[in-house]
Specification:
The protein is of the alpha/beta class and 424 residues long. Helices cover 34% and strands 18% of the residues. The strands form four sheets. A six-stranded mixed beta sheet has the order 3-2-7-15-16-17, with no helix packed on it. Strands 5-4-1-6 form a four-stranded mixed beta sheet. A four-stranded parallel beta sheet has the order 11-12-13-14. Helix 4 links the parallel strand 9 and strand 10. The longest helix is centred in the C-terminal third of the chain and has 24 residues.
């Protein structure tokens, strides 16, 4: 017991000492140029002074003494990327493993998955993620706490905890015999106002940063209609009102038109996937400032060989609707933030979302803004998303000019999160 206590204290002291050292250390980051993502301009040179994880000066006339200089040569500096729809603790990509994980693994397993997957996303340049739900037990919240404490490397997280879903709905654990993994409001499965209130309050109690509601059916669950509305209009309003009362925004998984419109009118902050948008929905989203998270690269990703047949059929059915929805959204200029659905694909492949959006009509700058300033706006935070003084030193470096070649973002060569250089 004494040995274990000594080890834990030693680890804690090491973390505190490292944090204190970083707080006192002044770093100077030098590169050819940096990207002003708000105005779409490359500014030369790029000399950033960083202290305590914050940018304190940009291109100063005089450099501070006794600073650590990081020389990046001809690189272009950019704000760290943000992914507004990820699943750091889930692994849907390995065949049909996800269909049995709820009964074969535990929250500890999922949190450990997140250690690996979070590092991969961070190394790909994603310094902040909004995590869109996990299996029961709050492994994503535990992962967030470990990252925030500096125990492990990973993106800053805004976890959703348990999905909010109707019994037997898209985000319930289905497909097993009766009596196996029958869960309720504490695990997010809630029907009617009373259970919804209990579910939201339990989420808030245990530290989630956003509420994820499954407003419609989906692709990775049993059932024939991926777009069917699942919560009633009134229930969706209760979810949003109670979440907002706790200072939590709501993200709504929604494929079908009726469910999307109901979620938008209920006041959700964002529509996830939004596969079947219509002109009327676009108009309502624009009026309310609702964000659209397209997860469009999924349309380019072949499903793993062992994917269940019901998922394949629904995925193929939705594909043309997804393409049309993205085209309308870009043409009408609604709020769009980058979301990859990492976990359904390899986590590091979130980087391909940029190219997927540009291929379908976005400019390079619009795609970059979706992962920086737009994502910061959706999260309601102002301390990141741009390279400016007083902002967090969440910075990535790439070769060349990303305003001309968006695929450069697939080869990030340097990542700094909160002033800490991340090994690639």
């Amino acid at each position: 017991m004494r040995i274990r206590l000594f080890t834990n204290l030693s680890l804690l002291m090491s973390i505190l000492l490292a944090a204190q050292t970083m707080a006192n250390e002044v770093q100077i980051l030098k590169a050819k140029q940096y990207l002003d993502v708000e105005n779409g301009k490359l500014i030369q040179p790029a000399v950033l002074v960083i202290k305590a994880g914050v940018i304190t000066q940009i291109n100063p006339k005089m450099l501070p003494d006794q600073a650590k200089i990081i020389e990046l040569g001809d690189k272009t500096l950019m704000p760290g990327f943000m992914d507004m729809h990820s699943h750091l603790t889930l692994d849907y990509f390995n065949g049909d493993h996800w269909t049995t994980a709820p009964v074969m693994e535990t929250p500890a397993d999922w949190a450990l998955h997140g250690v690996v997957f979070g590092k991969k996303m961070l190394q790909a340049g994603f310094t902040t993620v909004r995590d869109a739900g996990a299996f029961p037990g709050f492994p994503d919240v535990a992962l967030m706490k470990a990252i925030d404490a500096g125990v492990i490397d990973g993106p800053s997280m805004f976890p959703a905890g348990h999905y909010i879903s109707i019994t037997g709905g898209h985000c319930d654990i289905t497909g097993f015999a009766p009596g196996i993994q029958e869960i309720g409001p504490k695990q997010g499965i809630a029907d009617g106002k009373a259970e919804i209130l209990k579910a939201i309050r339990y989420q808030a109690k245990h530290g989630v940063k956003v509420i994820k509601v499954c407003a419609t059916a989906g692709v990775f669950s049993k059932g024939n209609s991926p777009g069917a509305q699942q919560y009633s209009d009134e229930e969706l309003k209760v979810i949003v009102e109670e979440s907002n009362r706790h200072g939590l925004k709501v993200m709504a998984h929604a494929h079908g038109s009726e469910g999307i419109m109901a979620a938008v009118k209920a006041g959700v902050a964002s529509i996830e996937h939004g596969s079947m948008l219509t002109p009327d929905i676009i108009k309502e989203m624009k009026k309310r400032g609702t964000f659209y998270i397209p997860t469009i690269h999924l349309n380019d990703v072949p499903l793993p060989p062992n994917t269940p047949v019901w998922t394949r059929e629904k995925n193929n059915y939705l594909k043309p609707f997804v393409e049309n929805s993205f085209k309308m959204a870009v043409e009408h200029g609604i709020n769009i933030a980058l979301g990859s659905d990492a976990g359904v694909m390899a986590h590091e492949d979130a980087r391909y979302e940029f190219k997927a959006m540009v291929k379908r009509g976005m400019t390079q700058l619009q795609a970059i803004q979706a992962a920086t300033v737009n994502s910061a706006k959706l999260l309601g935070i102002s301390d990141r998303g741009v390279i400016k003084t007083s902002k967090r030193a969440d910075i990535v470096a790439v070769d060349g000019n990303p305003l001309k070649d968006i695929t450069l973002l697939e080869q990030v060569s340097f990542v700094m999160k909160g002033g800490k250089v991340i090994g690639l």
